[in-house]
Structure formats: structure tokens, C-alpha cells
Amino acid sequence: MSPLLAEIAIALLAAVAVVLLWMLLARARTIEARLRELERLEPIQSGLTKLGQAREGLDLRRLEHVLIDMRDGQKRLEQRLMQLAESGAPEAERKAVAPIAERIVNRLLAMGCERIQIVTPGDELPDPGCGSGEVLVEARRAGAGCKGRVIVRDGTIAAIDLKSTHSMFP
Question: Which pLDDT belongs to residue 69?
């Protein structure tokens, strides 16, 4: 091989090496620019960490139950106010009827019912002191409509027979 060809080959290899080195440097600069953009995420990460620590102090289940209780209480109050406003009974009669109806509503709420309606007219409700009888009710439980009866013995709730309207029909 002639020395001139060897020198040209070495010069070409050197030129290729310089071009490759320049391409590697350009690629390193773009990677460095992208890494600088990621540095902006550090304050966000620290903010997320603080937010996570603040959230740990909250018991979300307890908060949800408190909100549900407040909603149910507001619904009961609204229903009771509507019953009193629509009732044409004298005040003394309303006071006598309210305790047993209120106890029935509270018991059904404790069972997980909502939108409770007492179907039995107020003058047919058992005496809250010592009366016995049946009270027809309608409510919703777990999104399904329910109908049934509440059995009152000696002024106390003895049994509740509540069935989903879906199970009443084949």
C-alpha cells in the first residue's frame, strides 16, 4: 500500500471520528437540556409529598360518614317539616302522634333506609304510650324501593317487616 493511500485513509478515519464526536456532543447537549426541564419537577414532587402528608391526617371514611349523617339528618328534618306543614291535625294531636312516627323513622334510618314515608294515616297510628298495631311504611334501601309494616306492641317497635318491591313480583 502506498503511503499516500495510508495517509488519506487515516485522514478519512480522523474526519469520521470528528463527525461522530461532534454528533455525540450534540446528543449529549439535547439530553442535558431535557434533564434541565426535569429539574423543574423537583418543587412539584416536594409539593406532592407535603400534600400526601397532610392527607394522611384526614380520615376520609370518617369524614364521609359524617357528611352522610348530616345529609340524612337534613332529609329527616325536611320530611318532618313537610309532614307538619301538610298535616291538618291540631297541635295537640300532632304531638301525640309524633313520637311513634319519629321512632319508626329513626329505626328505619338505622337500618339503612332513606326517603321514608309512613303510609298509615296519623289518626290510625298506635298510641305512643301503650298502643299496639301495624304501621305501613315505604322507603328506599340500597337504591331499591321497599314496602312493609312496622309492628308496634305496647307503644314500642316489636318488629319490622320490610321487603323490596323487586322481590314482590315474579
Answer: 87
